[in-house]
Description:
This protein is of the alpha/beta class.
Amino acid sequence: MAELLSLGLDVGTTTTQLIVSDLTVENRAGAFSVPELDITARKIRYQSPVHFTPMLDENRVDAEGLRRLVEQEYEAAGITRQQVDTGAVIITGETSRKENAHQVLNALSDFAGEFVVATAGPHLESLLAAKGAGAVEKSRDKPLLHMDIGGGTSNLALLEDGKTVRTGCLNVGGRLLKFNEQGQVTYVSPVLRGLTELKVGDPATEAQVRQVAELLTQALEMAAGLRPADELLERLSTAEAGAAFEPAPPGTAVCFSGGVAECIREDYPWLRFGDLGPVLGRCIRRSRFRDHCFLGQETIRATVIGAGCHSTQLSGSTVFHQNVTFPMKGLPVAKVT
């Protein structure tokens, strides 16, 4: 039996979070067999507060500010880079589309040590969030659709018997509209073009925001098979996800996580967070999801827990290597069938 120290860092559209976990590794094979290593226990040692992702402006992440934040959290967790054995640092949601995402990766790669540092495409992010929310385990009892609704995107994973059937991603999130304390619009995401007449500088009303939130909710209902799919579902599908998400079969239960899931759970004032998250959460709570959904074991922390606790897998053994220096970095991955 051995212990590994694992770190997970999720740099999202709205928030950045870090967790530190202890993973227990056991060899399940016999004494004279090829090792069969498995992670048998996961225990979270430290969870950071939920930080707003530091930004220079709407199009650029503050890479140095993010690096300082991670340094502070390492200190708060009582760990050093040299102690960390494994883990994943991932840039998710709309943050992965920012102009300087590559610069952010470099800043974190130097600090994070010898493990995965990458922009998480919608398929990986969907799977990590589903694992972190406990949806993968829940699907062993019955098929379900997991929806992780963040600031800029919603990552979808259709699960059955602990396996992923398909994944997808929609431009549905709580930070597609932003407001100041007086309700004046400060940001309108380009993905809402044609779906709202609101523009930067306009005084917004809750009713106007609700109209946008209801359209976004309808797209989620289409993905869940609760409403006939039309062009709205295709329109709000992200380019990274490829084709529009094929709706879940009728009767499929839905599990929610992400920051907006907190707004499904709690009825916040509509300007509480300066975005459309509270109104979107309220619309989802009152929609056709009402009798078909539940919240994950984790909501806002689902993705970071997936990265920190569920991103590591172990193979049986290393049989042979010669003239190779490990670790090997930046290798392309091809899936061969």
